[in-house]
Design a protein that fits this description.
259 residues; mainly beta; 2% helix
Amino acid sequence: MAIVSADLKEYKSSNTLSDGGDITATEVVDNVDNNLFTDITGDEAVAGGTEYRKIFRKNTHGSLTWQNVVSWLVSQPTNAALSFGFAINHTDDADGAQGNMSAFGANAVVAVVSDGADTRQVTVVGEDASGNRQSENLTLNGTTEVVGALTFSKLYGASVASLSGSRSVTIRQGSGGTTRGTIGINKKISFIWYGKKYTGASLGNAEGGDMASKAAGQKNGDVAPAGNFGLWYRLTWPTNAGAVTANSTQVKSEGDTAA
């Protein structure tokens, strides 16, 4: 039997507010108030602010793979803005502020370098020049830059195999090129945001663009039976934000099924 919508579920992450960590068995139920983000208080609305959440989308079908999955923003909330980004199913991926990447300005290879002795593996994920999802593993060589072989048009994120209490990793666009992200000390990942964001009272596109169509969407690849993929959410709201009742937003994920 083909995959149907009931086979595709969304789950919270393990941190208390679902703001980081690995997948849990707690489902995010649609059309329920405060099912993911809590109410914004009056003081918070006046000051403006940012909140992060991390969720997982899972294929619960018993035998079929959810193929060629793509995610994009369908709708934005009122008096606030949502952006989303790449996440991994790991307890150490626990800080939404690691969404510190900026977009590539042109097709390029990826270069990585640590700030000291470091031989960890870095996995970079993004799109090739034709817009297909691809990933590459690079092994750090301390403060000597390591340059990948694959050309990327977009970089969704980069993660390290393990945390370091003393080393941070810089991700560059091309050898010796512009810094596009940093995996900090005791951090697992660096990634880029797509969607909209508020800065003060000003609304604009997120760091990677608005990603408001399937054609421009983030490629999540194939999701095997019982498999999942993670997404970070960032909710921002302006200073002196107006009150809204039953606010909502939607990030859609769509793919194919073999039967």
